[in-house]
Design brief:
Length: about 475
């Protein structure tokens, strides 16, 4: 080989070495951020950060985390505020484009606000959404067992695609790795601390981050608390929510006389559909053709379990009242849509399966499920579907209580069945410097932030290090569908 060829080889080799991406590589560029309704535009920054997919593997792939940073309007900004979306599987960037955009903008008065896409979600790469869709038969009475079987088959296909074809190390998609992502983000940004602003599963991630990197967290807001051992929900909490809901319906001046006993109405509809499933003819919105759909007790229990504790709860009285009169159209329409829906994100399944539950939690769920209207259907399809994902369990040390002096603001709604007040109170015991805002009438998601302007005021006070002046807030009462 000539000297010139040797020199060329050396130059090529050097170029390849230099071009190799490295963990911790941060890129930030100007970005025009636009809301979903196209009505708001704001100058921001779009950032990406390379981190290991699985830190326990020295040969791990690098993945790209994405975020949008809204620069602070303060003269002396505090530590950056990082938003952690729920789900798991939600996008922080996507959240900022929606109804909470004004809140993102308001918090800039205190510090930079970062809408963060957790690993596997949103603009982060890879985004490990499953391409698979359900194909449940409409002419057979649906059962939990049949739905689980179908979900497992789809899950196996999705896991195979991402692991064997796309070479994604799915075992790296757990909450501990995500917590370490936040520490890597803090280091890359060159700041001593960050504050966490979280909701639902985002609070689950916040707990892990405070446990693993306590010195890096300035303050934390936890709205709709999902503690380390709260991945699987307690049937007793769901039953209590139904009882509270029944009391509100009875007291409602417009529908209370028609539905004086909502729990009794629910049970009568359940019993009717268990004894005799109903075949309903509806129009398929895709084909515009008539189709026959069988609905039964499992279908209506599934609908309630999927929507309880959200704004959709307001539809429950009308749904059951119509069903009691023999009108099952809404049930059939929902089940038709659900029977063909996508199965979601591999990230979501891996996170929840890895977080798991303690034996004590599992036993409590089994005991409580026997005496409740919905049993443990609220947790469907977990833990049954986890066998298809082979997610390594994070263990009871992950699920243990967290003890910390980090200042934490808990936010809960009295009608939030998904993350009830008791969740926050249980884990608040470990935080010596905490405040709890309780919002009367608030359900899960947006109402925990947007149902009253006093919530934002409390958040701002907390992030400034001031006492929170109002901890009991009354949101507008639920308006039931007539």
């Amino acid at each position: 080989m000539s000297m010139y060829k040797c020199v060329l080889c050396i130059l090529l080799f050097t170029t390849l070495v230099i071009a190799q991406p490295k963990s911790g590589t941060l890129k930030i560029k100007p970005y025009t951020f636009e809301t979903n309704n196209k009505k708001e535009k704001v100058d921001a920054e779009f950032g990406t950060l390379l981190v290991p997919e699985n830190r326990s593997d020295p040969e791990s792939n690098l993945i790209e985390l994405a975020f949008v940073r809204f620069k602070s309007t303060a003269k002396n900004p505090g530590p950056p505020i990082v938003y952690l979306a729920g789900g798991p599987g939600g996008s922080g960037i996507g959240t900022a484009r929606g109804s909470r955009f004004p809140l993102f903008m308001a918090l800039r008065e205190i510090a930079d606000v970062i809408a963060f896409d957790q690993r596997g979600t949103g603009f982060s790469k890879p985004n490990i959404t499953c391409l698979d869709r359900l194909a449940l038969p409409l002419d057979v009475a649906p059962t939990r067992e049949a739905a689980i079987k179908e979900l497992r088959e789809n899950a196996k296909d999705c896991a195979f695609y991402w692991h064997n074809i796309q070479r994604v190390d799915l075992s790296g998609y757990n909450t501990n790795e995500s917590a370490d992502d936040l520490e890597d983000l803090r280091r890359a940004l060159g700041v001593e601390q960050i504050s966490l602003w979280s909701i639902s599963y985002g609070t689950h991630l916040a707990f892990a981050t405070m446990r693993r990197h306590p010195q890096s967290i300035h303050r934390a807001i936890l709205a709709g608390t999902e503690g380390p051992d709260h991945t699987y929900k307690l049937p007793g909490n769901i039953q209590k929510h139904l009882e509270d809901l029944a009391a509100l319906i009875k007291a409602d001046s417009q529908i209370g006389k028609e539905i004086p006993d909502f729990l009794g109405l629910m049970k009568s509809v359940f019993d009717r559909l268990e004894a005799q499933p109903q075949t309903v003819e509806i129009t398929d919105p895709q084909t515009k053709l008539k189709v026959k759909v069988i609905v039964n007790k499992f279908v209506i229990q599934y609908i309630v379990a999927n929507n309880i504790g959200t704004t959709e709860t307001a539809d429950f009285p009308a749904l059951f009242y119509r069903a009691s009169k023999g009108d099952f159209t809404n049930l059939a329409e929902f089940w038709l849509s659900q029977s063909r829906s996508g199965i979601g994100s591999a990230m979501s399944y891996m996170m929840d399966c890895a977080s798991g539950q303690t034996a004590a939690r599992r036993d409590l769920i089994e005991r409580e499920a026997k005496d409740t209207l919905l049993g443990d259907l609220f947790n469907f399809p977990f833990p049954d579907v986890c066998t298809a994902w082979n997610a390594p369990d994070l263990g009871d040390s992950f699920r243990a209580p967290v003890r910390s002096d980090i200042p934490v603001l808990f936010i809960s709604g009295t009608l939030d069945a998904r993350t009830p007040i008791s969740n926050a109170e249980e884990y608040r015991k470990g935080f010596s410097n905490s405040t709890h805002i309780i919002i009367e009438n608030a359900v899960h998601s947006d109402p925990l932030f947007l149902s009253s302007p006093k919530i934002k005021e409390g958040m701002m006070e907390f992030l400034r290090g001031q006492p929170v002046t109002t901890t009991k807030i009354a949101a507008p009462p639920m308006k039931f569908v007539l």
